[in-house]
Structure formats: structure tokens, C-alpha cells
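Could you join me in thinking about how sequence relates to backbone shape in a protein? Would you write everything just below, so we can both look at the same thing?
***
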Amino acid sequence: MLRKLYATLLLIPLLASSSYAAGDFETFLKPLFSKSCVSCHGQPRPGKTPKVKGKVNLFDVKTEQEFLAQPKMIKEMIEAIDANDMPPEDEPQFDAATKKRVIASLKSYLVFAAKNEKTAQVKIHRLNRFQYNYAVKDLFKLKKDIFNLPEKLMTRKTGPQNYLNNVKSGKMPAKVNVTNKSFDKRLPFQGVEPFPQDTRASHGFDNQADNLTLSPLLLDAFLKLSISIIQSPDFNSRNVGVWNELFAEPNNKTGINAEIKKRLRKHLTMAFRRPVDEEVLNGYTSYTINKMKSGLSFTDSMKKAVTASLSSPLFIYKHRANTSAENEYYLASKLSFMLWGSIPDEELLTLAEQGKLSKNLKTTVERMMLDPKVERFLDTFPAQWMQLNGLLDAQPNTKDFELFWADKFRPASTQMVLEPLLLFDTVYMENRPVSELIKPNFSYRSKFLDKWYDLNNYKLTPQQIAEDKAIAKKRRELEHARNIARDFVNKRRDKAKRLIQVDIKKKFGKVRFTNVKPHSSWDFNGNLNDELNRIDLKAHGKISFKNGMLVLNNAYLTGDARDHFRERTYEIRFKLNSINQKGGGLIGIQGTDQKNITYDSLVFSKTQDKQWLSDSNQGKRTQAFKGSPEINPGEMIHLAISYGKNGEVEMFRNGKLYGKKYKAVNTQDYHRGKGLFFVGISDLIGKGKTLSVSIDRLRIYRRHLSGRDLKALSLGANHHLSTNDIVAKLNPEDAATFPAKEKELQNLEEQLRKLPPNDHRMIKLKDTLRRDLRSQEFVRGQVNDPRYGGIITNAALMTMTSTSKRSKPIARGAWMIEVIFNDPPPPPPNNVPALDEENSTKKLTIREAFAKHRDNPDCAGCHAKLDPLGFVMENFNPIGLWRDKYKKNNRPVDPHGTLLRKHDYKDIVEFKDALIKEEKRFAKAFAAHLLRFAQSRKLSPGDALTVEKIVNRAEKDKFRLQSLIKEVILSESFLEM
């Protein structure tokens, strides 16, 4: 009764101002149609079918009753005349007084036509994916979502840093932390997979009732989903806020049946959003008790019952009231699903139970709008209204727009999408006029976006261009010299390989020529060469190069490997020059676990006049000192230490196992490489002792090598030969020149590595953008350039309304006419040939190309509206950067046009100013979008009257966003049961 009275009161101002009276159709409207309209809308033509543009036939409307029977046509006529679309430009125009009168008359007719209109009210429709997630989350007071929601394009910082926790303050902080997690594949709840994303209604939202059907396949998916949620390892007492009151076993075992019924009553009332029927409650209670009798625990039995409730139609569906007593509960659900995307809270249900919700509707709405759960409204309506979901599907050409793909895993769109969403959050939080969505004086941007919008200033100076040319010339010269040196070295290396293979075959028989590539390699021919991953070597004491080898006199060489020893091989080839009577040393691997030192090495020592080698395994000699192999000065020794999968250690001397295989000590630091490791020569005995060793090569392999591979390596049968291996097989002339030539090759390659690439500035810019793509901090700043800012002129919109190669003015115009004006055009006729974009834009501007396309009379009407709205944004390229000319043909961009046939503009700045002058028109379109979202259905012609009343009431508060939302909820359309 209250809602009917409220609706009647809202109608009074419109009816009072109406010029409708019996006979107005015959005396005013019908003659006007005959004079100005029927020539295009139904006028018979001799021998031809009548011309009926836009499917509107006014010629056949003969009586007032026939006119009142077409509310949709009346609504469209009001909109066309109000927007100056009708009469067409080439027809006589209405003067101001006539236009005012005809609109007022049509509106009065629409009031009465809408009374008899049957709005298609959907009795039930299911929850969409977003609503299901939050309904479950709120029902059990979960600490996290149950599954990922890619449709949620912006994720705010959780906890106290979420600015919406302070929505009552009415002020956005200067810095916020947000990110886009659409590419995050991690599941919040283990084992819970979401059902498919719901389809969007054309020019609508994903909560539209007629799209939310329930097939048998999807019904089965809901059953499996409910099971997976309750059985998930994450569904436990830590994550479930209602665990103790619902699932925890009661302390008092008496009256267990009554306790189960009590718990289920509260749960089912919340889940089904209204008092649960006693028969239904008894069924759930009996089911739970039977599960306990079958041997399940109290907790598991309750879980079974709750699982059933989550797949019940009473939970999955939103259903209208069947009786007047249920209206309050239905209203509570409408409010909660619109503003919170979820079920009503206890306060809403209590007001509904007491029959007080309608009486306290305004204060309730204000409470809900200032609750942090309004985040769900801000996660759904803005992104869907602005159609931003299309942005993440954008695929700009990688060749033409490489900066968009600076990071292939996180394209620039993941940052772009956050700018308009943060603007909407701010207008909501601070309750600003909706016109500030069009032309705000502020914007939230990250470091990435600051750089992105400044990319137009990234232009090379003449000096930088000259530097790049000099770099390119230098590179060509170095590459030419490198190729000559490489050819010389490779031919000698190949020759040495062939000769080595012949010698090995003669001496040892068949040994395979292994191609085991080292991970890190130091071949000491006067240069430290680490091809893959440099591990710095540190010299201790006096070192020098002699005869292509590194000579250490009473010195040692260490390297911090930082590499665990499982499945690794360390190789060294050296010769012992001399050792004095009191001298000694070791060669191999040494590590420390901070408690003791461990070794895998060969130990040098000298007694009397003989020099000896013995192995030291984990610091313990495994061979007696006496009887260890004697070595001769100048003897080349190949030592390899190989670590197996389980920590086994094998030491090889000249390709043969030295000692026995043994198990390494099981210290975590040692095997995981946390201690200090080294490869090289270490002073063993102490100060004042003399030791001289020459090292040919040091190598590390990231694999366990077998004895056969190590034998081949010790014999030099490896594709990765040292300089000494090669020189030994060359003729005197080549042997004399090869080391220098190899060194020259290495120097040339080093110079090429150090030489900046021709596009080194672009590479540096990519690196910066790639790093900033991870930025989550957005800072509020003034919009100093009026070309930017707002939901229209941002990189997100421009990117998603472009092809991979060029901007699409028609797509941009269609976005404008749908989103900003809520006047979607009909689909293009099927018989219209597509525009040949590639060929038509080589010499023409896009505007000139479409001028020819518009010659088709079937296209002209829609394009007259679409094209100016799209071309005004042509100064923005396909990734949202400003341009004055088209890169393809160097032709200037022409953005001029006229809005609503009364506001001329020459660029996007003047266009936005013109839009602000039409603030009420934009507010009206915006309110219609809000009402459609709130109602979860397509708007009817009668809803147009509701929208006008909403806007008229919100105008008193300067069309502030929160005021518009409140008026939508207080409207007769929303309150209709």
C-alpha cells in the first residue's frame, strides 16, 4: 500500500504538467505526423512498399487507441525528438515551442500507455557466479573467496588498507593499493572450481534474469560445486566464521535433535533469504539425524545437510514474493543483491520479519551504501556499465605496439583497466556529481600509467639519431671482423678435434667424442671465459699467465659456487710445477657448514725428494699417505669430482676412478650450497711454504657424469677443447697464431656484447615499463592536460575499441552511444559489405574512408549518429596514446563534429565540455543503466517515466552518484513486487 501511494505521488508532477487531453492526438499529433514524419515512416509509394524507417509506421496509426497501444514507439519518438535526431537534417525542423509541446504531449500519452503495459516480470532467476561466491562467503562468514572471479577487474588491498573499510569518511586517500588479478590462476579454496562465467546480455549486465537459466548440466555442476566447497581442506574452523555455531559438536549431548533443528533453522533462513518452511526444515533435520545414525560424526552430518542447502533451488534461485507477507523478504533480497552482490544480513532479515523494512527503507539504503560490502557493487556495475571486460581481450599488434607487450605475461591493459575503476570509486566515495566521470580534475595513476601517457614525449633528438647510426656502423664493422676471426678459429678447432680423435683411437681404441657442455668454464689462455653464468674467481697470492696456463706460485684460486652438489661435476686440468720439502696444498672442492670444513680433493705433499698425491674425502684420508701415487713435475693431471643424485661422490684421476665411491656427509648446508665453496688450489700447510701449480682449465657441469664421459674428457675427446688441446695438434705456424686469434675473437665478441643495441633506448624503456607493471600504488593527481582524464579519454577505452592494427571509430562511437547516451543502435544490415580497412586507409584518413561507406542509404541513418562520436576520439591511437597525424599516411586527424545538432566542437576537449552542458541527459542515461542493473531485467517503455522522475529528484542534489542510486532504489519500478 505504501509503495502504491509513493508511486502515485511521484506521478502527480508529471500529470499536472502534461498537456494531454482527449482529442489531442487528433488535433495536434496526427496532423504533425502527416506533415513531418510519415514521408519516411509509412507513406505509401506508387507501386512500391511503404517506406518504414526504424520499423516505425505512423501512417497506419489512425486512432488515439491505436497510438496508446504502442508505448515502445511513443518512448522512442520522445527520445528521437529530444535528441534532435528527428526530424532529419534535410527536413523542416520544429521550432522551440512546437518541439516543447510535442515532447510534453508524447510524455503524457506515454503515462497512460504504460498503465496498460505488461512488464515481463521474471518470477525466478538464479544467482550468477559473482553472487554465488559472495552468498556462500557471507553465509559462512568465510575469510576468503571460494573461487577466482576474473570478472572482478580490480582487487583492492585487503584488511585495514582497503579504503572502502572507511567509506563513511566520504574521502578517498591520496594513495591507494589496487591490482588486477584476472591472470591469477591460483584457487582461493583448494579443489573448488568455479562454474562458467555468465553471459552478458546485449547492452546489459551479467545479472539479467532472462540470461540466467539453469540447464540440467549446470544443475549437476551446482551439486558438485556445493560438495567441493564443504569438502575442501580450506573449509575448516580457521576459515569458517560460523563454525562453532553451525558445525562444532555441542557440549551438551542431550537434546541433540533440537539443537540440530535450531542450528539448521538459522542457517536455512539466511541461505533461503526468508523463513524456512517447517516441512522443509524437518526434512533437513531428519536427513542430518539419519547421517549421524549411520555412523557419521556430528560435524560431518551437518556438512552433509549444508551441502544439500547450497544446491537447493531455494538457495540458487532468487524468487519473487508469492504473498504480501513475503514482500518484505523479497525487498531485502533485492537490496542486498544490488548493493552487496549477496544475501541479506541479519539486520535486513530482522526488519523484514518485523514488517518494518519498507517503513525504514531510506535509512536502510543509506546504511547499506556506507557498509564496506558495497565493494561488490563497485566490483560489478562500473566495469560492466563501461564494458571494460573487453579490454583484457585486446591484442594490439606486437610489431606496431611492442610497448603494450613489454611483459608478455602482464600486458599494459592490466594497469589501464584500473584507472577508470578508481575514478568511479572516488566519485562514489566522495559522492560527487556523475558529470565528474566525464571531466574530472583529478586522476589516480601508477608509475606505469604516468610513463605510459608520457610516451609521446619519448622522441629521439637528432644527436641521439646520429649516435644510433654510429652504433649500427660500429656493429657492422665488429661483426665483419668477428666473422673472419671465428672462421679461422673454427677451422683450426675442427682440425684439432679430428687429429685428437685419430690419436685416441690409435692409443686407446674406440672412445666416443663426447659433447658435454659445461655450465661454467674457465679456460686459461690469457682470458677468463664464462660462457653461461659467470662465477667470479678470486686469486689469493701471486698469479700469472704462462704458456697458455694460469700459474699460481704459493697462491690459490677460489670461487663462490653457491650450487648444491647433487648431480654436479667439477673438473680441473693442471700440472704440479714444484713443491718444497715443507710445502703442500689441495685441489678440489671445499665447503663449510659453519661447524666444520669438508673436502673432496686431492692433497699435495712432499717427503724427502718425492712428491705425492692422496685423496681427502670429507676431510678424512681414504688412502694411506704411504703408497699414494707419486707424481712427476710437469705431469698433466685431469681431476674430476662427480656427485650423484643421492650425494654419492666419485673422484677421477685421468679418467679412472681414484679410490672408492663414497657417500657425502649429510649436512644440509653442504649439499644445498649454503656454505662457502671453491674450485681451485688452496694453501694447505701454512705460511712460508712454497707451491707452484699451472691450471689449464676449470669447468662445472650441471649433471652427474659417468666414468665413460670423464675418460673422454681426460683424453681431450670433447667438443669443448681448451686452447692448449688445440695448439698441441696444430702446425707450428697455426700454433703460433691461434691463441692470439682466439683472444681476438673473444675480444670482438666481448665488444659486441658491450655495444648498446641500435634500439637500446627502447630496451631500457621496456625494462622500466615491465618493472612498473607490477606497481600496485596509485597516486591521486591533478589532470593538467584536459585531453586526458575521465571515463572517455583514457587508454583503457581506446585500446578495447581498436583492432590489432588500428583504431575503430565506429566501435568507439557505438560505445559512446550505448554507455554515455544509453541509446544503442540496431545491428548493421546483413547485406552491407564490410569496409576494406587495409586498402582504404593507405591514402585516405579513416574518416574519408567511412564517408564513402556511408553512401549506402541503409547505413546513413545510424552512421550519422555514430560517426561523430567515434571520430572525436581519433586523436588517440589503438593503445590510447595521442597522435596528431596517422602514422600510415601522415594525414592529419580530423576530430570535429556537432553534438545533438547544437554543440559544435573541433576536438575532444570541446566535446567533453559539450557533454557537460548536457549533464542532465547523461545523468538520465546513467540512471537508466542503474535501474536496469538493479532490476536485473531489460527496461520497459514505462520505465522511461520512472527514470525521468529519478533524474528530476536527483537534480536537487546536483546529480550526485549516491543520490542517483538512492532514487533508483526508492523508485516505483524497483519497489514493484
Q: What stands out?
A: Confidence is low (pLDDT under 50) at residues 1-19, 530-535, 617-627, 667-680. The chain is about 40% helix and 15% strand. The two ends are 11 Å apart (CA to CA).
